[in-house]
Design goal:
By secondary structure, the chain is of the alpha/beta class. It contains seven helices and 20 strands.
């Protein structure tokens, strides 16, 4: 059984079928696609689309080097049409317990018993917005719900966070004619793209299992910013950088230096929280080795950063991770 019909869950279904199993995929939405369906249209993958390969060798069909959200959604829809996995839509997992050697997954449509479970709910299903004192009187949205087309020329937009999503939101708002500020406690540095030959070498090295590398090869859940546009806009004075926000006001916010930042709209590019609440009473926070749970031999995880390689947690790593986790689970429960 697989919870989640995004790229990771569908990859797990493909590998399970290759082993002669009959995977059942549960998806709380009405169709496949996972968090990709919910993201802003302007969201792009962080790697060249030829590297974002599903287990059958297919990858996003797009004119750009890096695929946008719609191309990834189309890829996942195409993958499901081709392989016709058994997907039960509009089903939410609510809790997990054991009964003898079996696992019992409680869902919105009743309990389901299985010997092995892949948790493929991903890292991007639950938007996180920090709690600050005060009340903001304008529009406040998380990055997942941000639509640059809704902006008015001259609208004052405050972007909170300067990671990849913050950089994309700031540039999109600037292109829409907004006055943009970015709140971040850290100095911005300009990304320097490596030459093509070096990028290909780094991509190949990213497949090395982290267990073979001292200190996990420095793998981190924090993803470096890929595009230089935000840095260039701040340097040119087209975007104003302010410090960490400490409170909200009806007309904006106050940063850590006491500066008042006027805003009509705040966009929280502050990340997401892992959706594993339904496993927590039994397993707590995910503890695993290579994606295989240390809390129960019948449970595996997919989509966790650094779970096996530096590709883990990204579209480019799901196919390989899914194969390893599914094979590992099959060996554990036979």
């Amino acid at each position: 059984m697989i919870v989640g019909a995004g790229a990771a869950g569908l990859s797990a279904a493909w590998h399970a079928r290759r082993l002669g199993l009959s995977p059942l995929v549960l998806e709380r939405a009405e169709t496949v696609g996972g968090a990709w369906r919910l993201m802003p249209q302007g969201l792009r993958c962080l790697s060249p689309r030829q590297h974002d390969v599903m287990p059958d060798g297919d990858f996003p069909d797009a004119p750009e080097e890096r695929a946008h959200r719609s191309a990834v959604v189309a890829l996942l829809e195409r993958f499901q049409r081709r392989h016709k996995f058994r997907v039960q839509p509009s089903v939410s997992a609510t809790s997990l317990r054991t009964r003898g050697d079996a696992l019992v997954l409680e869902t919105s449509r009743g309990p389901i018993t299985t010997r092995s479970l892949v948790v493929a709910t991903g890292e991007f299903g639950r938007p996180y917005t920090p709690t600050l004192t005060g009340v903001f009187g304008g529009t406040s949205v998380h990055y997942r719900d941000f639509r640059a087309a809704e902006l008015r020329p001259g609208e004052r937009v405050l972007i909170v966070g300067a990671g990849n999503s913050g950089a994309e939101a700031a540039v999109a708002a600037l292109q829409a004619g907004a006055e943009v500020s970015v709140a971040t406690p850290d100095p911005l540095t300009r990304p320097n793209p490596a030459p093509p030959w070096a990028r290909e070498a780094l991509y190949r090295l990213s497949a090395v299992p982290l267990r073979w590398v001292p200190g996990d090869g420095g793998c981190s859940e924090r993803t470096p910013v890929v595009d230089p546009e935000l840095f260039d806009a701040v340097t040119a004075g087209r975007v104003t950088q302010v410090s960490r926000l400490v409170s909200l006001e009806p007309a904006g916010a106050v940063d850590a230096t006491g500066r008042r930042v006027a805003a009509d709209r705040i966009v929280w590019c502050t990340g997401f929280r892992r959706e594993v609440d339904f496993t927590a009473p039994l397993l707590g926070a995910p503890r695993h080795r290579g994606g295989l749970s240390l809390g129960h031999r019948g449970v595996g995880y997919l989509g966790l950063p650094c779970q096996r390689t530096r590709r883990s947690g990204f579209l480019r790593g799901f196919a390989e991770d899914a194969g390893a986790v599914v094979r590992g689970l099959a060996g554990r429960v036979t």
